[in-house]
Amino acid sequence: MSTSTTASVSTHILDTSIGRPAEGVAVQLSARAGRDAQWQTLGGSATDADGRCKDLPALPEGITHVRLDFAVEAYFEKKQADAQQDAPANRDSGAVFFPEVAITFAVKPGEHYHVPLLLNPFGYSVYRGS
């Protein structure tokens, strides 16, 4: 696969509520060739101890749009369970506000796209990194 005809994608997650990487978050990569094309699931991975997905699948030729789906609900549920052991008083009902985060972006052949997710229980931010 030539890097001049395909784009590549990487990501990582930082939990800004604790200033640490978010480990164990499932990430699914989907792509489509054109705005009106159907999404194709290419595969997925999970974040490691550094919050990174190092083994996302390669993009096929002709891809113009990519979607990263982050399944953050299980991560936050585990975090809440761990926190309740230390401090039983919880400031909300325990429901996860953002159970998943989907980021869609356009790509061009030959470019690398690093898309970090800055995450906390009540908000998130994303940007094109390097």
TrEMBL record:
<comment type="similarity">
    <text>Belongs to the transthyretin family. 5-hydroxyisourate hydrolase subfamily.</text>
</comment>
<dbReference type="GO" id="GO:0033971">
    <property type="term" value="F:hydroxyisourate hydrolase activity"/>
</dbReference>
<comment type="subunit">
    <text>Homotetramer.</text>
</comment>
<feature type="domain" description="Transthyretin/hydroxyisourate hydrolase">
    <location>
        <begin position="9"/>
        <end position="129"/>
    </location>
</feature>
<keyword id="KW-0378">Hydrolase</keyword>
<dbReference type="InterPro" id="IPR014306">
    <property type="entry name" value="Hydroxyisourate_hydrolase"/>
</dbReference>
<protein>
    <recommendedName>
        <fullName>5-hydroxyisourate hydrolase</fullName>
        <ecNumber>3.5.2.17</ecNumber>
    </recommendedName>
</protein>
<dbReference type="InterPro" id="IPR023416">
    <property type="entry name" value="Transthyretin/HIU_hydrolase_d"/>
</dbReference>
<dbReference type="InterPro" id="IPR036817">
    <property type="entry name" value="Transthyretin/HIU_hydrolase_sf"/>
</dbReference>
<dbReference type="Pfam" id="PF00576">
    <property type="entry name" value="Transthyretin"/>
</dbReference>
<dbReference type="GO" id="GO:0006144">
    <property type="term" value="P:purine nucleobase metabolic process"/>
</dbReference>
<keyword id="KW-0659">Purine metabolism</keyword>
<comment type="function">
    <text>Catalyzes the hydrolysis of 5-hydroxyisourate (HIU) to 2-oxo-4-hydroxy-4-carboxy-5-ureidoimidazoline (OHCU).</text>
</comment>
<dbReference type="InterPro" id="IPR023418">
    <property type="entry name" value="Thyroxine_BS"/>
</dbReference>
